[in-house]
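Dear support,

Our group has been running a series of protein-ligand predictions, and this particular one with 2,6-di-O-phosphono-beta-D-fructofuranose is the one our PI (initials K.S.) wants archived with full inputs and outputs. We had some confusion internally about which version of the output was final, so please treat the block below as the authoritative record. The input we submitted was:
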Amino acid sequence: MLNPRRDTSVVTIERFIIEQEELIPEATGALSGILYDLALAAKMIANKVRRAGLADILGATEDQNVQGEVQQKLDVYANETIIKALDHGGRLCAMGSEEVEEFIPIPKKFKQGKYAILFDPLDGSSNIDVNIPVGTIFSIVRKISTGPEGELKDLLQPGYKQVAAGYVLYGSSTVLVYTTGAGVHGFTLDPMLGEFLLHNANITTPETGKYLSVNNGYEQLWSDPVKNLMQRYRGLDGKREAMNGRYVGSFVADFHRNLCGGGIFAYPSNAKSPKGKLRLLYEASPMAFIIEQAGGAAIDGTNRILDISPTSLHQRTPLFIGSKQDVETAREFLNS
Ligand code: FDP
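Confirmed final output from the archive:
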C-alpha cells in the first residue's frame, strides 16, 4: 500500500519553507533564504561524500583543526562549501565553524544581514575513511550587536535564543532535519531529482526509549554517579529493562536513530575530559533545540543545555540528550 506522505511526496524543502514562512506575517524571507542555502550546501557535500572512495578526497590533510584534531579533506571541503553557500546572501552578519578557531566575518564586499550561524561542517569525520555515516549540524541566531557588522557576541548566545537549528545525515540516504521552533521536520534527498522531499513532518520522540548510545571505553574514567547511571540503563540494578547499546561514534547518526526510536545519547565528563568532548555551540545546543521540539530533553548533567550561556566559541559540555524520561533518570543520578 502506498504511504501517501512518503511515496507520493511532492513537498520539496523549498515549498515547505515557503509555506512555513507564510504563517509568519512579519517574515522577510531571510531565514528561509539561509535554509535554502544550507540545503544546497548539503546536496553538494552529500555528492562529495557519496564519491568519497572514488575521488582523491579520503584521508587526512596536513593540518589540525582548532580542537587539535587532524583535519580530513572532506572536513575542509564541507567547511568551505558552507561558507561559500552562505556568505554572500546579505542575510548573515557572522559565522562560526567548528573547524575554524576565530569567528568568521562576512566579507566587506557583501551586505550584512540580521542573522548569525554556527555550524559543524562534518561531524563524526573520524569515521569517513571507513564508510560510516557523518553529518552536518547548524544553529541560527539573531544578530544582537548594534554596530553595522557582526560581532563575537552574536555567536555567543544561549541555546534558547536559537531561531532555527538542524542537521544533515549523510547515511544510507541523505536526510535533512530542522526546526524553527514550530516542530521538527525531516526531508530525504531524492538523488535522481536532486531535491529534498518531505518525509516526516512534526517528528516526535518517544517519552522513553530503547537505545543507549555511550562510549563504554571511558567507563574506568567515569565518576561513580555516571557508572551507577549506566548500570541503571543497562538494567543491571534490576530497576528497568536493559536498553540496547548502540554507538556509531558519529553524533548525528546516533542522535538521529535515537530521535526516531527513543533513548539517550550520553557523552559524560570523565577523568581525562572534565567537560566531555562535544561542543556546546556546534553540537549540543542545536541538537537540544531539536530534541526539545520533538518532546525530548537535553542536559549537561544538571542544567538544561539551552539555558547555558556560552563564554567561548569552542567550549565543550557534557551531554545527556534524548527521550524525556531517560534524561530525567540522568538528572536524578547525577544530582543526588
Ligand atoms: P568526531 O571526533 O569523529 O568528529 O564530537 C565529534 C565526535 O566525532 C562525535 O560525532 C562523536 O559522537 C564523538 O566525537 C565520538 O567521540 P569518542 O570517540 O570519544 O567516543
